[in-house]
Write a structure and sequence with these properties.
35% of the residues lie in helices and 26% in strands. With 852 residues, the chain is of the alpha+beta class. The strands form 7 sheets. Strands 8-7-6-5-4-3-2-9 form an 8-stranded antiparallel β-sheet. A 5-stranded mixed β-sheet has the order 11-18-17-13-15, with no helix packed on it.
Length: 852
């Protein structure tokens, strides 16, 4: 016999395992009970038929009352009576009796022999299934556990119970309801059941839906396109008892409703007796909100009983017309931007001067075009996202109104407005609808940009199709992309000659990007043509003269590497990288920063400059720079150590698809599984003692011993190693009219972010944590209705991220929420869990605060 020393707290696990095994054994005993007349007499009856009938299931809803009929099998026939009284929405209490009427000699019982038994049953989808069967008059008689099907006879409009057990197909049952009255023994049970049903039924008088309201960001009840607000349901409990597990389900009549997040209501809530409470769900809308109104249906269920409410909210849809009108390409504005696109055989040119002049003259559409080119650093503009955003913000209302009435040019500009964040961070992925609408109407620049959108989604066949279409419509800029697709064999057969031909078409237009692609092909050689680095550098220098920053980076990398006969020159590389960085190119900034970390001839390691340029590249969206910057902050070797900032920048790289998510939580769950098998010992005999040497359990079941020892070992390992708590919020910077904060929470924090009453902030939480061996992993939305006993705030899911201003009520944040400050004060954030110290993993936060 072996002896295991176990922590005393492990007794709960033993109880859990033993209870689970006991329930499984009881279940087997019930299901495996003896079936009366299992060998059946019905073969001697002229009306014998296969009882597993294909007749249609009856639509009868309430089967209360007394049912009478016959049971036949090959050896006997019995009079059979069932009396049923409703105990719940799909449950019944019952009493049945069998009286032997005919038998064969091998049956030991005499004619007139009777058996009575009580039972509970469920009735679902026309199937009546017994459970909890008890014999009344003959305790030793085998229990009869029925499985009956209620069918509708084809010949007349009546219902009949027949056998539904495929294991005893020879058994024939015929039962029809003869009266709604119950057997006398069930009358008292019926009164009890009625009282139970009444106590567990919700009606308009027991669960009052006091109000369902919606409040938008504009402080009204209109569901406006691309907006956010909060729906609130106010419930009052008149039942005189706690209502636990009220299910709420929200749906809309409209299939395309333009709503995001209204399903946050779907789940369970609790309501204390004689109390009222409000339940909130954040709702975000996109640009597909329908006209006139959206119709909600909210269903509240409790113990199978239902209360339903409808709510119609007025809407403001985006489009005022379905038609799209195209501008004249001869307009001064489109003539200006044609210098970039090449429409009308116009050569590639600097668009900044004509656009600046038009914008200065009050052309708001020219303002938006200028903002687009500024944000991307195209058309002769130096990249300046902040200036581009500010300029676009000054004219977005005008552009938006033109797009709403179907202006094709404005629709394209609205696509870019979404990409720039002018319609909010959540709208960045929603602008494709504007682009598609403009492209389908035939606006040439939109057709080209629509093709580029397909390349981002790796749908190269569609991209190639629309690139050809845009080139044929006059967009010469498409030539360099078509050439690239031929070079790489994207949806077309690899053909370097065709690639060069298309590159030369782009070069004839004056496109520096086409010149650069040809330079790269020349540098590596192709087919029977050897590499020519000198010619490649000359082509790239030609492209760089037109402010092509990628060409500058190409030259810088060649001088940094010093390959293919090019003498390595770090100072020359820095010169090229710096030229591109000064034009706002984030990849050049990253390259420049990494070069400053290099030690070698002609260069001195400069960590301060390296941090400056890499941080700037990360701020402009370089995912690799984000990873490098995160390492700098985490290690503190280049600049000051800051774990919160390190986690923020690494999470940004994750969101950009460049790095793997923090797997601390998921790894903890996987390690628990492995530790179970590591510690499981299936030896046949154990005595379990606690740390004081006292016996707490014993067992001679090898399987049970293995389960218990594995569970205890895994628990000791999991709960014996607590992670470092990381809680904090840091100001990151300003972008697009918002102050950006990054943070991490693993328990709770009081931030230094001061909010003002009515201020609305955008909070997003990322990550997966392990909440425990049994409760498992969770995202920031928490564990739903499970584990309520471990919540701090009872109406917020366990382990969910929640927020509040100091001295106000905590509110659910989850993975995403727009939080409205109820008063002035510092923002607090926390996990809704009393046992957070046993958690593994962290939630990383990004908070946007409007600057004004």
């Amino acid at each position: 016999m072996k002896c295991k020393f176990l922590p005393l707290t492990g007794l709960t696990v033993v109880a859990f395992l033993l209870t689970g095994c006991l329930e499984a054994q009881i279940g087997k005993a019930i299901v495996g009970g003896v079936i009366l007349g299992g060998a059946a007499l019905s073969a001697s009856k002229a009306h014998h038929k296969d009882q597993l009938s294909t007749a249609p299931t009856s639509d009868l809803q309430d089967i209360s009352g007394t049912w009478e009929g016959k049971v036949f099998d090959p050896n006997s026939s019995w009079y059979y009576q069932i009396s049923l009284t409703k105990a719940g929405p799909a449950t019944y209490s019952g009493l049945d009796s069998f009286v032997l009427e005919e038998k064969k000699p091998n049956i030991p019982w005499q004619v007139g022999y009777s058996v009575k038994q009580t039972f509970t049953a469920t009735f679902n989808n026309g199937i009546l299934t017994y459970s909890n069967v008890k014999n009344v008059n003959l305790p030793n008689f085998p229990q009869v556990v029925e499985n009956l099907r209620l069918i509708r006879e084809k010949s007349r409009d009546s219902s009949e119970f027949v056998n539904n057990n495929p294991a005893i197909v020879q058994r024939e049952v015929h039962l029809k309801r003869t009266t709604m009255a119950l057997a006398p023994a069930l009358v008292k049970q019926e009164e009890t059941n009625k009282a139970v049903i009444a106590a567990n039924t919700i009606t308009d008088s027991t669960l009052e839906v006091e109000s369902i309201t919606y409040n938008s960001s504009r402080n009204n009840s209109v569901l406006r396109y691309n907006d956010h607000g909060q729906m609130t349901i106010k419930l009052r409990n008149h039942a005189g008892k706690d209502l636990t597990g009220i299910q709420i389900n929200a749906t809309t009549t409209e299939e395309t409703n333009g709503l995001i997040g209204y399903d946050k209501f779907n789940g369970n809530v609790n309501l204390a007796k004689n109390s009222e409470n409000s339940f909130n769900a954040p709702i975000t809308t996109n640009f597909s909100v329908p006209r006139d109104s959206v119709h909600f249906t909210l269903v509240f269920k409790y113990n199978g009983f239902t209360v339903q409410r409808q709510l119609a909210l007025p809407t403001e849809s985006y489009y005022k017309t379905a038609a799209v009108t195209l501008p004249a390409y001869t307009s001064p504005r489109l003539q200006a931007v044609s210098g970039y696109y090449g429409i009308g055989n116009k050569p590639f040119s600097d668009v900044s001067k004509p656009l600046d002049a038009l914008a200065a003259g009050g052309d708001k559409m020219a303002h938006m075009w200028k903002a687009v080119f500024l944000s991307m650093g195209y058309g002769g503009y130096k990249i300046d996202e902040d200036q581009g955003y500010a300029l676009a913000k000054s004219c977005i209302s005008f552009v938006e109104e033109k797009a709403r009435v179907g202006d094709g040019e404005a629709l394209l500009l609205m696509f870019y407005a979404c990409q720039m964040g002018l319609e909010g961070e959540d709208a960045k992925g929603l602008g494709g609808n504007f682009l598609e609408k403009s492209a389908f109407a035939g606006f040439s620049p939109a057709v080209y940009d629509y093709a580029l959108l397909f390349t981002q989604h790796r749908d190269y066949a569609s991209a190639f199709k629309y690139l050809l279409k845009s080139y044929e419509s006059g967009v010469k800029k498409a030539a360099e992309v078509i050439g690239y697709m031929y070079e790489k064999g994207l949806s077309v057969t690899n053909d370097n000659d065709s690639a060069i031909a298309w590159y030369r078409r782009g070069i004839a237009f004056g496109d520096p990007d086409a010149t650069l692609w040809l330079a790269k092909l020349v540098a590596k050689g192709h087919d029977n043509t050897p590499p020519d680095i000198n010619k490649a550098l000359a082509l790239a220098t030609e492209a760089a003269a037109k402010n092509c920053t990628d060409a500058m980076i190409f030259n810088g990398e060649n001088y940094y590497d010093g390959k293919q006969g090019v003498a390595r020159s770090i100072p020359t590389a820095i010169k090229w990288f710096r030229a591109a960085a000064d034009l706002g190119d984030r990849q050049a900034m990253l390259a420049l920063g990494e070069t400053y970390l290099t030690e070698g001839p002609g260069v001195v390691k400069d960590e301060r400059s390296a941090l400056f340029w890499i941080k700037r590249a990360a701020e402009l969206g370089s995912p690799k720079a984000m990873v490098v910057l995160a390492r700098f902050y985490n290690e503190g070797t280049v600049g000051e150590k800051n774990i919160i900032m390190g986690r923020y920048w690494y999470n940004q790289a994750v969101l950009n698809g460049f790095a793997r998510p923090d797997a601390t939580g998921l790894n903890a769950q996987a390690e628990t599984f492995m530790n179970f098998w590591k510690y499981a010992d299936f030896s046949p005999s154990y005595i379990y003692v606690n740390e004081y040497g006292q016996k707490v359990a014993d067992g001679d079941d090898g399987l049970m011993n293995g389960l218990v020892s594995g569970m205890f070992g895994a628990m000791a390992n999991y709960y014996g190693h607590q992670q470092e708590l990381i809680n904090g919020l840091e100001f990151v910077g300003k972008k697009n009219g918002y102050k950006i904060y990054g943070g991490t929470v693993s328990s709770s924090l009081m931030s230094t972010l001061q909010l003002h009453q009515g201020q609305i902030i955008n909070i997003k939480a990322y990550g997966i944590i392990s909440t425990g061996m049994m409760s498992g992993p969770a995202n920031a939305d928490g564990l739903g209705p499970n584990w309520p006993e471990y919540r701090i705030i009872k109406d917020i899911p366990c382990s969910a991220v929640m927020g509040a201003v100091k001295d106000t009520k905590w509110q659910f944040i989850g993975q995403h929420a727009f939080y409205t400050a109820p008063k002035d004060g510092p923002l607090m954030l926390a996990l809704n869990a009393i046992d957070y110290r046993n958690y593994k993993g962290y939630f990383d936060l990004v908070i946007q605060v409007p600057e004004n």
